[in-house]
Design brief:
By secondary structure, the chain is of the alpha+beta class. It has three helices and six strands. Helix 1 runs antiparallel to helix 3.
Length: 150
């Protein structure tokens, strides 16, 4: 009857190579997790727009060349002089050229032209992000090495 060879097998040289591969995979996984954004970095992903005109219940702001701003998207007006204090919520009702018009859906105080409009751009699909392709290539390399050595 065959004896159990344990997790790594019975050859010392093969054990060292397998342990080295395991350790390299562990280091790769830890470094990949270190590349993920933290909660503090999430705040820098907001787009800021200068408010051009304030009407009774609407605001008009310059969007420049940001094509993702469309009718129905939501955002907030904040006061940069007070460390981005929340002023109002809005919903975009129309875009013409480089300006967008939005209706104010809720506010804590009156919106002023000194305030800025803040919106979150749409996130890119996972297959269009660089981190995905780096992780896929690293996984393929680890898989090939593991397949060759085991």
């Amino acid at each position: 009857m065959r004896q159990s060879q344990g997790v790594f097998g019975k050859h010392p040289a093969g054990n060292a190579r397998r342990f080295g591969l395991f350790f390299a995979s562990l280091v790769f996984a830890m470094s990949a997790m270190a590349c993920l954004p933290t909660a503090a970095e999430a705040q820098s992903l907001l787009a800021r727009f200068r408010i051009e005109q304030v009407k009774d219940t609407t605001i008009v702001f310059n969007i420049g060349g940001q094509g993702w701003v469309r009718a129905g998207r939501r955002g907030q007006a904040v006061d940069p002089a007070r460390d981005d204090e929340f002023v109002a919520e809005f919903r975009v009702i129309g875009v013409q050229g480089t300006t967008a018009e939005a209706v104010i859906t809720g506010q804590t105080r009156r919106v002023q032209p000194e305030h800025v409009a803040v919106m979150q751009p749409p996130s890119r699909p996972f297959w269009r992000q660089t981190v995905f392709w780096i992780a896929a290539a690293g996984g393929a390399i680890v898989g090939l090495v593991a397949g060759y050595n085991f």
